[in-house]
Amino acid sequence: MYIYDIYSMSTMTGDLDTPETPRMRVILSNSSSEPIYEQIARQIRAQIIGGELEEGSLLSSIRSLARDLQVSVITTKRAYEELEREGLIDTVGGKGTFVAAQNPQFLREKRMSLVEEKLADAVSEARLVGLSLDDLSEMLRLLAEEE
Amino acid sequence: MKALIRKDLRLLAPYWWLILPGHVLFSANGVISPEFLFWIGVALAASFTVGLAVIDWRFDADRFVAALPVDRPAQVRARYVGAIGAAVLGTALYVAYGSVIVAAFPARLGWRTGAGAWNSPEGIAVFFLVAAALVLILLPLLFRLGLVRGIWSFGFVALAVMAVAISRVSNAGAEAPSQALVEELAVFVDDRGAAVAWPLVLASLMGLIWLSARLSIAGFRSREL
Amino acid sequence: MEDNVLEIRGVHKSYPGFTMRDVDLVVPTGHVTGLIGPNGAGKTTLVKLVMNLITREAGEIDVFGLDNLLHEAEVKARIGFVYDEPNFPHDVNARDLGRAIGPFYRGWSGERYRRLLGEFGIPVRKRFKALSKGMQMKLALAIALAHDADLLLMDEPTAGLDLEFRRDLLEHLAAILEDERKSVLFSTHVTSDLERFADFITLIRDGEIVFSLPTSDLRDAWGVVKGAADVLARLDAPDVRGVRTGPHGVEALVANASLARTKCGPGVVIDRPSLDDVLVLMTRGDSYVESH
Amino acid sequence: MDDLLVVERIRKAWDVVALEDVSLRLPPGHIMGIAGPNGSGKTTLIRLILGHIRPDGGAIRVFGDDPGLSGRAIRSRIGFVLDRPISYEHLSVTRLGRLVADFYADWDEVEFQRLLDEFELPGRRRASALSRGMRVKLGLALALAHNAELLVLDEPTTGLDPVFRRELLARLSAIIADGRTSVLFSTQILTDLDRVADFAVFLRGGRVVFSGPKDDLLDRWAIVRGGPELAAAAGADAVRGIRRSRMGFDVLFDDMDAAKPYCDGPAVLERPTLDDVFLLLGSKESQ
Amino acid sequence: MWNLIRKDLILGRWTLIVNGSMALLAPFILLIPDEPPPVILYVLYVGLMCTMLPVSLIAKEDKFSATAFTCSLPVTRDDIVTSRYLGGWFIAGGWMAAVLALGLLAPAVRDLWSNGAGGALLGGLTMLGLTIAIVIPFTIRFGMNGLLFGLVGLQVLGMVLFIGALATGGLDGIERAVKSVIDAVGSYHERVGPAGFAVTVIFGVALLNWVSWKASRRIFRTRDL
């Protein structure tokens, strides 16, 4: 049937996962309430803090990212401006945008705040479902042991 | 402006094999008399001149052309070059058809020859004048009023011009107005001598073309597309 | 009262460069069925087959339970049709059209026709050629709606019409559908109209019916999984309806978003598909022939 | 790099007002979408840019000059596709190319052939035998082959199916990637603007009802759908439009936070689609 | 089915009025200088003008491809074909009778009928019948353009045959054949007398229309609109 073979075709040829330079990966959702430029900034920030985008590596330009993601140039510009304000990236006139030099201490701090944020989400979700603190910490322990 | 002229030629390119045979067949009726040949020649010339004049409206492309990097005076000038060129082509065909007919049926027809004849310089000048006059009147109206209103008003203007021309000439010979015109021009040339008359004729013709072009440019400049 | 206003069984029709082989389609009564598909997919062919404007090589078509060839006149008496190119004679005005067409239909009401003309803002005396394209479509709609048809068959009725009129038209059709005996088959390229208004969506492509599903399924059950290339491996194949690879990852249309969620875990984005997404993801690139 | 297109308080009227007090700016390397119902002035604005007509009031500058005066120079840097994408349909694709090439000093035949291949347009086929989508692509190829700095498209997506539309919009996004060229296109299908358009201009009855970055609409604006009690919100300054709905009122706010206080109880706070914004913005009740 | 004819009358109102008025010009035939023309000429002229009415309606429907619209109305395809035949006879026949009756008011026209009235009427009816029988199936199958091309094609064919016959001297062969047909009809006319002849002709025309109606129905049933 037509649909099946497109799916298998793409995996067989394996053109999807050819090893490439560690490229930035941004997946946009148009039905989430988070504005598009925040989604872009969040994912790039996570990839910088997570180390997938090392220091000094070149990011794709505002316009080529807009073209890739099929969004407006203003959206990507706003995302880059936000990241630049946070000191995660800096733009060298004419040469492009690079991941800024992160001092390790600042990086750890950033990661800590990321973890905190995620835990806060978990707590609010748990309260919604009516989980008590013990159940929550029990789950945390199980998850921690799994890794 | 040259690009506009080449455009018109390119547009006509696919139709040449259709236009020419039709014309040759149609011109066969010219065998009857110089008068017939004259008016059929004018009709053929008009099919070129008017055809070229309305070509952009025919293909509904007036906005397309106006969006190209050409200014309006250039469009008008290109249109006049095309129209006058077509009138010259019409005249050439007129003379060609006439000569073929005269060669094919010399005895029976006994058309007039020499001064004032259909193929004398006066005859050719009158033919060209009538062929060109048609489009020199039409173009300013088209450029100012667009296709529909342009053609309508052209209808009225042409009637008026015809009425004037015929009434002036009718006393000379009702049944052959064109040949009467040729004779009149021949007389005009004789009185003043060729050296004076012809430059005058040419000058007035150029003046007519220049005037019509100026009117067209003025009209087209402010026309909303 | 039939539960299906229109049933197409095993229909076969071929033009040079286009064939439609044993097509089955069922349009439920009392509902709006949206027909979507790329140009040249066969939307117009289907509509013309139902109206017997073109002959078919094989297959049956029942409208209101009646065979549309044996009961041609009776079937057409209860259909209001709008074609993408309204082909009325050019020198006709709305008033003449109403007087000429009225007697053909039992349910025709001159009063309703005049009210529709007023509502759509159509000048009664103006010649058809002098109307704008949008106005010509509105006149065709007024005629189709004026004889209280049980089935409204519309091929691209909103082409070239603006958003406001399209919304009013949809509200007008919604009012008609309060009587559950009425049904609408509505083919369009502007899928946003259908998203809120259609109960069922039929996708047709290259002469084949790809699916006929309730719109709610497409909106709630289906999903577009967006993620890195490896995400595809985690999905189970039969669930995937179409894939498109972009510079930043892949988009996979799946028929069961919740299943995909369990397979891919929280990190992967799963969006609700718009009808455009469904159409784009299920169409293989740019394969267009003359529109039929 | 100053703006490619500057329109200041333009006025144009025949027996009816076509454009009234319209202002907008288009910087290089951006896409501007102009949306509006039939007869809202979209085509009039495009005809002004191309120098087909002259404004009655206000000023328009393309590449810094007035299209009415130095139209020729301006149009040599503009690529256009009119709402009738192709004229001279009796000519074949290649013949049309040769005809248009003659008019542009910096026509790039290699680029034109590449575009024909990319759009799968057979050179020998007559333009009249092409489908509407194919004709829009041919129009685009003709417009792009002389590296124009401004692309003006009059309702290119009308009558095209979604796959074609998305592909065309992706192509526009690629065109502006060089940061030099800008695109201005009119449309009646607002979802065209959802993705790649940078600026949106909504016209209604010749007036600008909204003009600015499209992201503001999608990211900052909000709609509250609720019961009759929302009528009270009509006065608030953040309200840009209010319209009666089946159950009560839909209220459009130009700021998400300003909308929050109104959605206690049954009222729902949503992020608007461009269709909603367009309908609510000009709705009668809001005037 | 009568609705279809009524629809054509309403929608084609202007076309019918314009073409119908041409038939009213018939009495001007009397202006031809020599002694009053035979009545057959008068009737044939009226007949020709009247047959133009249904033909112009069919041409209009074909031009705007309105047949798809007509076919979407609650009628069967056979109804459409039948309405064209009945409509043709009703419109053309009815208007022809009206014009001829109207003509009787003028005394000059009335005495035209003094001789050969029967033959003239028969001629008119035959022409009407033949036109309808040929035009309708032809336009259904090939459309109006097809019909026009067909007519032009026939003319060209005629010219070629004529020239061929001229060249090969076979001209008198054709003349003889045509003469023999006329003689046969003439002798048949003597044998059965005017009434009998009229009946046979009417029966022939009716039969032709019936066959043509059958053929048209079969063609139209499988025609894609």
What does it look like?
The complex is a heteropentamer of chains A (147), B (225), C (292), D (287) and E (225). Chain A has six helices and three strands, in the order H-H-E-H-H-E-E-H-H. Chain A has two domains: 81 residues, Orthogonal Bundle (Arc Repressor Mutant, subunit A), CATH 1.10.10.10; 43 residues. Helix content of chain A is 59%, strand content 7%. In chain A, a hairpin with a 3-residue loop joins strand 2 and strand 3. Chain A is mainly α. Chain A has a three-stranded antiparallel β-sheet. The radius of gyration of chain A is 19 Å and the shape is globular. Chain B has 225 residues and is an all-alpha fold. The longest helix of chain B is centred in the middle third of the chain and has 33 residues. The two termini of chain B are 19 Å apart. Chain C is globular. In chain C, helix 4 packs antiparallel against helix 5. The relative contact order of chain C is 0.16. Chain C folds into two domains: 214 residues, Rossmann fold (3-Layer(aba) Sandwich); 49 residues, no CATH class. The C terminus of chain C is likely disordered. A six-stranded mixed β-sheet of chain C has the order 6-7-8-3-9-10, with helices on both faces. Chain C is an alpha/beta fold. With 287 residues, chain D is α/β, with parallel strands linked by helices. Chain D starts with a strand and ends in a 6-residue tail after the last helix. The interface between C and D is medium-sized, with 30 and 29 residues.
